[in-house]
Design a protein that fits this description.
Elements lengths: L4 E5 L1 H8 L5 H4 L3 E3 L22 E5 L2 H6 L3 H19 L1
Parallel strand pairs: 1-3
Antiparallel strand pairs: 2-3
Length: 91
């Protein structure tokens, strides 16, 4: 599997992929480049061909965070806006 875009849902997923210093709130809604040579976790039996060029990450909030937000309408709007960025990227 060689995805063009990985949508990262929340800080836990972001830290799993990008390290413990990752902060979802600082990167939310922006397309980030995955550094060439950085391996994404692979499913059993997959091999990495080493060609990560062009891979992008999009960070957004986890959908459950929308349900816990004080202003659910604003949080939901942010989630939808972030997913629209993904949609435009994938064309």
């Amino acid at each position: 599997m060689n995805p063009e875009l990985v949508v990262v849902l929340g800080a836990t997923a972001g830290k799993s992929l990008l390290g413990s210093s990752f902060k979802a709130s600082e990167s939310r809604g922006a397309l980030l480049s995955l550094t060439p040579g950085t391996d994404l976790p692979l499913s059993t039996g997959e091999t990495n061909d080493g060609d990560d060029d062009g891979r992008r990450l999009l960070v957004t909030m986890h959908p459950s965070a929308v349900l816990r937000a004080k202003d659910r309408d604003e949080a939901f709007g942010g989630l939808v806006s972030d997913l629209r960025v993904a949609s435009r990227f994938l064309g």
